[in-house]
Amino acid sequence: MSATTMEHTRRPGTEADQPIIELVGISKRFEKKLDFIGKLAQRLGAPVREEIVHAVDNVNLTIRHGEVVGLVGESGCGKSTLGRVVAGIMPPSDGQVLWRGRDIASLHGAEAKEAKLRAQMIFQDPMSSLNPRMKVQDIVGEAPQVHGMTTRSGFNDYVDEQLRRAGLDPALKKRYPHQFSGGQRQRIGIARALAVQPEFLVCDESVAALDVSIQAQILNLFMRLRSELNLTYLFISHDLSVVEHLSDRVVIMYLGRVVEQAPSEEIFARANHPYTVSLLSAVPRIEARKRAFTTVQGEIPSPLNPPPGCHFHPRCPHAMERCRVEVPALKEIAPGHLSACHLNG
Amino acid sequence: MAATLEVRNLQTHFFTRAGVVKAVDGVSFTVGRGKVMGLVGESGSGKTVTGFSIIGLVDAPGRVVGGEILFHGQNLAKLSEEEMRQLRGNRIAMIFQDPMMTLNPVLRVDTQMIETVLAHTKVSKEEARQRCRDALGMVGIPSPDERLKSYPHQFSGGMRQRVAIAIALLHRPELIIADEPTTALDVTIQGQILAEVQKLAANTGTSLIWITHDLSVVAGLADDLAVMYAGKVVEDGPVSEVLDKPMHPYTHGLIGSVPSRNRRGEPLRQIPGMTPSLLKLPPGCAFHSRCDRATPECTAPVELLELIPGRHARCIHPHLEEVAA
């Protein structure tokens, strides 16, 4: 890569529809190997086995340049794991991650480093994702210095600019993370991610821990940065109202699988999958007064032992025999609207 | 009908080494019989301390230093610890955000529940068990007989919260204080809990104080709403009126910050700045430094005034034009 990597280059409009990241058949499994005692017990005939969690199960997803994709699901559905695979923090067990059409696993040396830098992640809890023993200027400035985006003499100016862009006073850069409020800490996390000039950000529940008024400030910051820096987002959240506000496209996950994806307006107006429908009806809305809360039956099954067929069938009001045996495929039911349900034929 | 609970100018202060923290400093509200009262505020606004003050759980260095908590006319702030213990868990119960605060991890659920029953009523152990079983069934726990024999860690988060609610319901209390009980739960599980609570409040005539930071939850659940900021109630009134026509600029800003109240993709109407430290509150209205309507007069103390019948606000520049419209 050449000098263009030294600054945020404005991409020409023709690139807007190009996929920036493609996931092809991504799966991520976590295995708990048997220890010595376990192996011994197994050999003696005890019913112990290796435990495998299919956190992400055969997910295909394309994110186009400049798009904001909202990834929604309840706890344990694999949305954070998928986010980490996309951000390159975690290797997938199966499948390929394509960065601008090229398989990340096939890249080497400078190219691999470059692709990794271009995708950054912002975490939920800014306290546990910031090193408490580092000053803010080092948290934000270390990576760009290592990667040659700033020099020792330009370090101060560079850090100041990053902090200012995230809405922080550069005069505070000599402080430690614990001296900041929750909202400010989240801004430090944002400044750190943007300091290496990424094109693509994975935000994993980045506003979930914040108060409503601070959440609004951070969401506004995300939207401003998006237009200023021409960023692409994968926005992971359990909060549908936040996702609805921010996203161009929404992806719904349930127990490791994508069950539905569609443009924002489409999914909130015409949700197709029974899980999406029940999720939308369970969300409390400020417009609703003294209403009866409708409920989905049952709980989310353990990902250690997911139900066969469609994962949602034990809780689904429309479940039929076929749902118990056959995994429904993600099929296009309207332009850009995909749903994985046997009801669609 | 007489109110179940009437809080008048409650003040709970914490005497710390760094100074006096006025966590609750002038909170007044009324909860009618069978009504759900939403107590809303951001972190540090004093909503939880208000709940703790009512049920008498404020620990040193904190102390209720002023005001009255009238429960059926009886001032709870003046009761002795022993008298308070007779009430707590019996006529007033509390549900916490984290159900593990209610549950003892090393005791089976039946042990803990039966203990709660026997603490306030003289019944045989078998009768007590029967009551526990009914309570678990009432909050929608399947096969309550077997579940009684489980330990808390064998329940999922949502089920644990149901057990905590069942324990709160054991003595059919007249008042339940619920402190963010669904915040840690998933959306579908939260929906289930809210539905159960709504049913119970309607069927048993129990009054509820629902403490939360989430306006959307109380919008669908509560009858009345009190909004807290920096230890004070800044606005109260019936839910739909407060949410549709907020008078206090803080309530106004808070509702404007909710994403669904804004057009998709457009900047949210945000409140600038952040909540002030309770150790050094600005004089007068604590919100004035963040308020777009503030004038020099705002540094003088403001009382909670009944601006229109049934609605109070603590502001000298309220949004009255929208209320009149």
UniProtKB/TrEMBL annotation, chain A:
<dbReference type="InterPro" id="IPR003439">
    <property type="entry name" value="ABC_transporter-like_ATP-bd"/>
</dbReference>
<dbReference type="InterPro" id="IPR017871">
    <property type="entry name" value="ABC_transporter-like_CS"/>
</dbReference>
<dbReference type="Pfam" id="PF08352">
    <property type="entry name" value="oligo_HPY"/>
</dbReference>
<keyword id="KW-0813">Transport</keyword>
<keyword id="KW-0547">Nucleotide-binding</keyword>
<dbReference type="InterPro" id="IPR013563">
    <property type="entry name" value="Oligopep_ABC_C"/>
</dbReference>
<dbReference type="InterPro" id="IPR050319">
    <property type="entry name" value="ABC_transp_ATP-bind"/>
</dbReference>
<dbReference type="InterPro" id="IPR027417">
    <property type="entry name" value="P-loop_NTPase"/>
</dbReference>
<dbReference type="Pfam" id="PF00005">
    <property type="entry name" value="ABC_tran"/>
</dbReference>
<dbReference type="GO" id="GO:0005524">
    <property type="term" value="F:ATP binding"/>
</dbReference>
<comment type="similarity">
    <text>Belongs to the ABC transporter superfamily.</text>
</comment>
<dbReference type="InterPro" id="IPR003593">
    <property type="entry name" value="AAA+_ATPase"/>
</dbReference>
<keyword id="KW-0067">ATP-binding</keyword>
<feature type="domain" description="ABC transporter">
    <location>
        <begin position="21"/>
        <end position="280"/>
    </location>
</feature>
<protein>
    <submittedName>
        <fullName>ABC transporter ATP-binding protein</fullName>
    </submittedName>
</protein>
UniProtKB/TrEMBL annotation, chain B:
<dbReference type="Pfam" id="PF08352">
    <property type="entry name" value="oligo_HPY"/>
</dbReference>
<dbReference type="InterPro" id="IPR003439">
    <property type="entry name" value="ABC_transporter-like_ATP-bd"/>
</dbReference>
<dbReference type="InterPro" id="IPR013563">
    <property type="entry name" value="Oligopep_ABC_C"/>
</dbReference>
<feature type="domain" description="ABC transporter">
    <location>
        <begin position="5"/>
        <end position="255"/>
    </location>
</feature>
<keyword id="KW-0813">Transport</keyword>
<dbReference type="InterPro" id="IPR050388">
    <property type="entry name" value="ABC_Ni/Peptide_Import"/>
</dbReference>
<comment type="similarity">
    <text>Belongs to the ABC transporter superfamily.</text>
</comment>
<dbReference type="InterPro" id="IPR027417">
    <property type="entry name" value="P-loop_NTPase"/>
</dbReference>
<dbReference type="Pfam" id="PF00005">
    <property type="entry name" value="ABC_tran"/>
</dbReference>
<dbReference type="GO" id="GO:0005524">
    <property type="term" value="F:ATP binding"/>
</dbReference>
<keyword id="KW-1003">Cell membrane</keyword>
<dbReference type="InterPro" id="IPR003593">
    <property type="entry name" value="AAA+_ATPase"/>
</dbReference>
<keyword id="KW-0472">Membrane</keyword>
<keyword id="KW-0547">Nucleotide-binding</keyword>
<keyword id="KW-0067">ATP-binding</keyword>
<dbReference type="InterPro" id="IPR017871">
    <property type="entry name" value="ABC_transporter-like_CS"/>
</dbReference>
<protein>
    <submittedName>
        <fullName>ABC transporter ATP-binding protein</fullName>
    </submittedName>
</protein>
